[in-house]
Amino acid sequence: MKRVAKPVFFIIAVLILALTVTSVFGIRTQFGDIQTTRIKGISDIRWGIDIKGGVEATFQPANGFDATSEQLQSAKSVIETRMVANNITDYEIYVDDGSDKIIVRFPWKENETEYNAEKAISEISQTASLTFRPGYSYEGVSLADDGTQVMTTPTGETAATVLLDGADVESAQAGVITDNGKSQYVVSLKFNSQGTEKFREATTTYLNQTISIWMDDIMLSYPTVSAVITDGSAQISGNFTAEEATALATKINGGALPFDLETVASSAVSATLGTNTLYAMAIAAVAALIIIVLFMIIMFRMPGFVAVIALLGQLAITVVAVSGYFPVFNSFTMTLPGIAGMILSVGMGVDANIITAERIKEELGLGKSLDSAINAGTKNSLAAIVDGNMTVIIVAVILILVFGPFNMLSFIFGPSTTGSIYAFGYTLLIGVIGNFIMGIGASRLMLKSISGFKAFRNPKLYGGAKK
User: Fold this and answer.
1) 3-state secondary structure 17-46
2) Of the candidates 330, 429, 342, 420, which has an alpha carbon nearest to the alpha carbon of residue 44?
3) Which strands, in side-by-side order, build the sheet including 169-179?
4) CA distance 176 to 47
5) What DSSP letter does each residue of 300-321 carry, written as one string?
6) pLDDT tens-place values along the chain, 467 residues long
7) Contact criterion met (CB below 8 Å) for 189 and 235
8) How does DSSP assign 120-164, residue by residue?
9) What region, left, alpha or beta, does residue 270 occupy, with left being phi > 0 and alpha being psi -120 to 50 degrees?
10) How far apart are CA 347 and CA 341, in angstroms?
């Protein structure tokens, strides 16, 4: 066996522990009274209605607008798009054509403290009309919560001329750029074919002039056109926070509602399980993890110790995918079935490491040297592990496709089951992918690396007889 360099074990172990700690606790910086989330942790996860409760709202067209059935369905589609863009999978939306009403239920935001139903509703009911306009003439100025000026209400040519609007945008994505050594959050836009041509004409006509970008009546940015842009790409900057950039990208992707909505009724929905249940599950999970750690180390010694580190990495990958590890990504809505998917994937990870440890033990029993036993054991166990994990991946993918945003069989199972089953499939899939990375990749590298140290070359540490 070609040995893996000794430092590899420590490098991988430190990276896994760093990922585990940051994924659990996140990273935040404090400047005066302003706290900024650099990396999201478990506290930033958006919990489903079953765990934390949520909001129920009834909407109708504002100002007595008489919406057609097609317009109501269009509004429903926009709301659904915004839900999915926010990774809110535990939701229900119904349309009552007879009374021109839309009923929506969805969970509270991950960082909600006020539990204000009306404030939560604004997240999905805003019209969000994006426009590009010549110049930057405006009528009013107000102050944002952070004290910065906000220009409102376009005037003159800026009000009269719309160069592009949200319909010309193919996609929007929040991101970070570095300008003169300073990082700032932006929203990157990709225009469709029609928008690309419009944007080329606009940047040609207003070369070395200003084109302002507006969301409804609020000016977001007013860049000066320095070159003709023909590739259909643009960036919106405006001193955004990560959350503001993400929210703006979500609204643009969701599109504008066909009519303004007004809230007829709203109320908080109680959790079916509650936060106390979540705490109890957390305690049970920690206890189960301790038992697994002790079992793996006592039964399989060195392979068990390496497996424990790999399992931490697998759990960290799942948490990263759920919490929206980076602020520019929304957290995933975690429901009770989603937690069950995580637990099942951990079981798959434990199984993979046990199979490998047993194969190594068998090879040592045949009288092979430690290096040969590790090489043969990891090689011979690979097929069984891959087969088992691939079957689970296939099932998870089917669950995501059937019960995910596409709602392919919602007419059979009902919309209330969609989010729960989708959450189970999502966490199960991420967990099994994490098992491939950690349980098959990282654990084997660490095992081959640590076996190179003289102090850890005793076959008894790997399940064999002491020589």
Assistant:
1) HHHHHHHHHCEEEEECCEEEEEECCHHHCE
2) 330
3) 169-179, 182-191, 233-240
4) 27
5) HHHHHHHHHHHHHHHHHHHHHH
6) 567 888 999 999 999 999 999 999 988 887 766 677 788 888 888 888 878 788 888 888 888 888 888 888 878 877 777 777 667 777 778 888 888 888 888 887 766 666 666 667 776 666 567 788 999 899 888 766 556 678 888 999 999 999 988 778 888 888 888 877 777 888 888 999 999 999 999 999 999 999 998 877 888 888 888 889 899 888 887 677 777 787 777 777 766 677 777 888 877 777 766 667 777 878 888 898 899 999 999 999 999 999 999 999 999 999 999 888 877 677 788 888 888 899 999 999 999 999 999 999 999 988 898 889 999 999 999 999 999 899 999 999 888 877 766 566 556 655 545 567 788 888 999 999 999 999 889 999 999 999 989 889 888 998 876 55
7) yes
8) HHHHHH----EEEEEB--EEEEEE-TTS-EEEEEE-HHHHH--SE
9) beta
10) 10
Distance of alpha carbon 170 from alpha carbon 467, whole angstroms: 67
Give the long-range contacts of residues 274-279, CB within 8 A, separation 24 or more.
Answer: 274/51, 275/51, 275/52, 277/51, 278/47, 278/51, 278/52
Q: Which two tokens stand for residue 177?
A: 């750029």
* Virtual torsion, Cα 348, 349, 351, 356, nearest 10 deg: 140
The tokens for 380 are: 């011979």
Tell me how far apart the alpha carbons of residues 243 and 174 are, in angstroms, rounded to a whole number: 9
Which structure tokens are listed for 335? 């429901």
Q: How many Å from the N-terminal Cα to the C-terminal Cα in the chain?
A: 20
Domains of the chain: 7-28+274-462 (1.20.1640.10), 54-127+262-269 (3.30.70.3400), 130-256 (3.30.1360.200)
The answer to whether the CB of 93 falls within 8 A of the CB of 102 is yes
Residue 95, SS3 per DSSP: strand
The counts of H helices and E strands in the chain are 13, 17
Question: What does the block give as tokens for 31?
Answer: 């400047």
Q: What is the rounded (10 degree) CA torsion for 321, 324, 326, 328? A: 130
In the sheet that 218-221 helps form, which strands lie side by side, from edge to edge?
138-143, 149-154, 218-221, 211-215, 130-134, 164-165
278 to 48, 106, 223, 344: CA distances (angstroms): 11, 18, 47, 17
